[in-house]
């Protein structure tokens, strides 16, 4: 993940545009799929409006003094309770709350390429139109 | 095919019993959505009332979030191992909780069953009255709003529906995005 340093507050006006209503079949990664869906529809930036389903295993991350650390959640059948965040080609940032098969909750950043759909994921994105 | 795991790099893949079909991403585009904020009062049955709220509205499907609130009674499913060779994982018997349940996260999809009736799919995380964490697939017909109203935001859309269809790869009936005539 890129960690660009921001020197000053940025404000962007805009509105929400088209919706992309999708299903991810098994073994598809959430972040890669979200970016592929945006690219296929010519969308430069989008927000997650809906996301639920299940993962084979979840791999979540958080920032620490030593850099990004991993929270592995072993499945299969890790339930996605919610996904939030922005999609920007190659620079998406998505967070998720998930539960393992014992119902225990975990939260963190979605690690790219490491959160694969188990049975299905319903993912709905909405275009962000600046200006 | 016998369902099995396959290690690819540092992630596990799961190969289901049915033949995988292309494309792997199914998607439809909608021009715009309609936003709804719904507040369910204490004592309300969540599934029944949500369907009543949506009855008569012109929409094909919807997606949204549980924003805040609690439940006095709740049932949810977790994934369990089965004895079926073709479907080795499925939802188990519901886990039932009573009293002072606090929602902390949740997502909802309003899809359509084969008869085109609205169908609710909801996953959520919540805390029980002892402080224990839980998360899973909610049985909305068996959830009663607690002393805190339940706030739900939905984005309704037309022309595209999340339609239940059998999935030959996983052997589950799942929500698929499909184009529809405007409602």
Automatic annotation (TrEMBL), chain A:
For this UniProt record, give its keywords in alphabetical order, as a comma-separated list. DNA-binding
- Any one GO MF annotation of this record: DNA binding
Q: Which SUPFAM superfamilies match?
A: AF0104/ALDC/Ptd012-like
Report if keyword DNA-binding is assigned: yes
Domain spans labelled PPC: 14-131
| Keyword DNA-binding carried by entry | yes
Q: Which Pfam families match?
A: PCC
Q: What is this protein called?
A: DNA-binding protein
**Species name:** Pseudomonas matsuisoli
From TrEMBL, chain B:
- Alphabetized PROSITE patterns for the sequence: PPC
The record's annotation in InterPro entries points to: PPC_dom (IPR005175)
Matching entries from Gene3D superfamilies are given as: Hypothetical protein, similar to alpha- acetolactate decarboxylase, domain 2
* Domain PPC, first and last residues per copy: 30-178
What SUPFAM superfamilies does this protein's entry cite? Answer: AF0104/ALDC/Ptd012-like (SSF117856)
Its domain of life reads Bacteria
Record protein name field? PPC domain-containing protein
The species is Pseudomonas matsuisoli
């Amino acid at each position: 993940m890129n960690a660009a340093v921001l020197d000053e507050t940025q404000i962007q006006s805009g509105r929400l545009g088209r919706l992309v209503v999708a299903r991810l079949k098994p073994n598809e990664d959430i972040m890669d799929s979200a970016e592929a869906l945006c690219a296929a529809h010519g969308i430069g930036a989008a927000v997650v409006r809906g996301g639920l389903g299940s993962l084979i295993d979840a791999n979540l991350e958080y920032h620490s003094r030593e850099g990004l650390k991993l929270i592995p959640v072993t499945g299969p059948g890790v339930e996605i309770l919610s996904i939030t965040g922005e999609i920007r080609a190659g620079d998406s940032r998505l967070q998720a709350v998930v539960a393992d098969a014992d119902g225990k909750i975990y939260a963190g950043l979605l690690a790219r390429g490491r959160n694969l759909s188990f049975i299905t994921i319903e993912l709905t994105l909405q275009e962000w139109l600046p200006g | 095919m016998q369902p099995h795991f396959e290690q690819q790099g540092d992630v596990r893949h799961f190969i289901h019993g049915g033949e995988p079909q292309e494309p792997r991403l199914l998607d439809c585009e909608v021009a715009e959505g309609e936003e709804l904020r719904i507040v369910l009062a204490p004592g309300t049955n969540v599934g029944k009332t949500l369907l009543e709220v949506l009855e008569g509205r012109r929409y094909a499907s919807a997606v949204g979030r549980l924003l805040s609130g609690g439940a006095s009674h709740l049932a949810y499913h977790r994934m369990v191992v089965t004895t079926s060779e073709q479907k080795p994982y499925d939802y188990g018997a519901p886990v039932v909780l009573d009293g002072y349940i606090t929602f902390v996260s949740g997502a909802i999809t309003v899809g359509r069953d084969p008869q085109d009736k609205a169908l609710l799919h909801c996953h959520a995380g919540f805390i029980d009255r002892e402080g224990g964490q839980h998360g899973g697939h909610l049985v909305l017909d068996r959830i009663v709003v607690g002393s805190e109203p339940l706030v739900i935001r939905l984005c309704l859309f037309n022309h595209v529906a999340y339609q239940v269809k059998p999935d030959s790869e996983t052997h589950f009936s799942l929500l698929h995005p499909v184009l529809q005539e405007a409602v």
